[in-house]
Amino acid sequence: MTKINAAGKTRRQIYEDRLRRRSMLVAGGSTLVVFLAVVILVPMAPGWDRVKASFFNWEVFAKTFPKLLEAFKLDVAIFLWSAPAIVLLGLLVALARDTRNPALFPLRILGAAYTDIFRGVPVVLTVYLIGFGVPGLGLPRPWNSPYIWGSLALILTYSAYVAEIFRSGIESVHKSQRAAAASLGLSDTDSMRFVILPQAIRRVVPAQMNMFIALQKDVALLSFIGPVEIFRQAGVYKSLLANFTPYVGAAVIFLAVTIPATRYADYLIARQNRERS
Amino acid sequence: MAKITLKAVEKRFGDNTVCDGINLEVEEGQMVCLIGASGAGKSTLLRCVNLLEAIEDGEILLDGEDISLPGLDPQPVRRRIGMVFQSYNLFPHMTAAENVMLAPRRVYKKSRAALRPEITELFTRFGLADRMNHYPDQLSGGQQQRVAIVRALAMKPEVMLFDEITSALDPQLVGEVLDVLCLLKDSGMTMVLATHEMGFAREAADKVCFLKDGKVVEEGAPSALFDAPHHPDTQAFLARALK
Ligand SMILES: Nc1ncnc2c1ncn2[C@@H]1O[C@H](COP(=O)(O)OP(=O)(O)OP(=O)(O)O)[C@@H](O)[C@H]1O
Ligand SMILES: [Mg+2]
């Protein structure tokens, strides 16, 4: 029996309330100290005025921000047409690497080589090689477009990572599930399609979300091969206005998208961990 | 002719011989119980019969037909032999009804609508009528295990294999699952059980086999085996198990 006091709280609740109040006080206090230190100390640095003028110029920010936002639409568009292709290719590669049919052995090797190569090369290199290399073949319009080949570079790179995540998901489904499916007379294909994959995909959703957040950021790499997306647009303004503030504006726009997405992915992961424990 | 015949079945995992020349006959409509200490090879034997494990040597006959031939397509055989596992192994992302309908839909190409009446009848018979649209994690262990039995039965198997299907259950839920087995026996199903439920084996089995180190040490009618075991190993095991 717990004794209930006048406030309708048990002794344990009162104790925990007190602990919570104290830790909040400590956390608030230390945050304030750090914040004050930054606000007071950073402006004391010798180059602060110059940095402030060239990175945090409010006028430049207000002037360039709408156009940056406009340019960001291209980033989103590239993301939107690349993402489904990545999911599809990633899934196919994961399945190819999992196949046990000897006739498909070449596919397995190919899948392994593919993931090794594209995970081993820096994304920016792949973007350069494919984005400059393929149009260099002298293809007719529209096949010389950097949009196509730049997107392809992202698709190939990210599919390699996404495939590995799918594969880890497939392996995480307990083998007793396969045994149960087999014992019912289901074919290997049906067992994969109806029993294993649905469970595997569900488990890796948070991990895949993190991949796609990274993809949204890496779309900016296409600026090196032509498309005037946000990073390139910011560069144009930087040259025009001799001021770095547009880059800060671009960063703000990226953060506005990636922070909520990252938080959501973290929430999903936390929820899954809770469900499994 | 026996429904299932095992002739000198041998199964090894590396150097570990788990089934060491097992001979066994199961007649049509019989309930045979496999008993023995942990690690004796009961589960492995059942998995071999269902072709989930390939045997090294010997023969497994179903209606006199060798199903253990290397290279034989296992799927048609597995449809004729249902299996229920200790850990239920329901598909967690599907409702009970979807669990049950998946294999008939894919293998026998029946539609959900066509399956609905017979599935409902099965659920009702096993006291699960109001649980059809629940997910496995919304069911008690006993209910999950009964759904697993229904799922195997929906393929209309000729033989059912049960691997310690009550071991993971709370004691008060064991009864409802054992009742289901009795119901099945009355309907004439041929069944092989690996079990630690000695009381049930004695009451319901037609034949009991005691396994030790991958060998059938002794077999016989339950009354003979439980009340007057011949082999010292059987005596020792029963002395411990029935304590
Ligand atoms: N997949 C496997 N790989 C290697 N060894 C295995 C495998 N499955 C079973 N074994 C071994 O086979 C032996 C028999 O195991 P089995 O599960 O058949 O025993 P059991 O009689 O069912 O025991 P229990 O009553 O504990 O279920 C054990 O020594 C076990 O370690
Ligand atoms: Mg076992």
What do you see in this structure?
The complex is a heterodimer of chains A (277) and B (243). By secondary structure, chain A is an all-alpha fold. Chain A has 2 domains: 1-44; 50-276, MetI-like fold, CATH 1.10.3720.10. Helices cover 79% and strands 0% of the residues of chain A. Chain A contains 10 helices and no strands. The longest helix of chain A has 41 residues, at 58-98. The two termini of chain A are 29 Å apart. Chain B is α/β, with parallel strands linked by helices. Chain B has one domain (4-241): Rossmann fold, CATH 3.40.50. Chain B contains 9 helices and 10 strands. Chain B has helices at 42-49, 74-80, 96-107, 112-125, 141-153, 171-186, 198-204, 222-227, 232-241, and strands at residues 4-13, 16-26, 31-35, 57-62, 65-66, 81-84, 159-163, 190-194, 207-212, 215-220. In chain B, the strands form 2 sheets. A 6-stranded mixed sheet of chain B has the order 6-7-8-3-9-10, with helices on both faces. Chain B has a 4-stranded antiparallel sheet with strand order 2-1-4-5, with helices on one face. In chain B, a hairpin with a 2-residue loop joins strand 1 (4-13) and strand 2 (16-26). Chain B is globular and about 55 Å long. The termini of chain B are far apart. The mean pLDDT of chain B is 93.
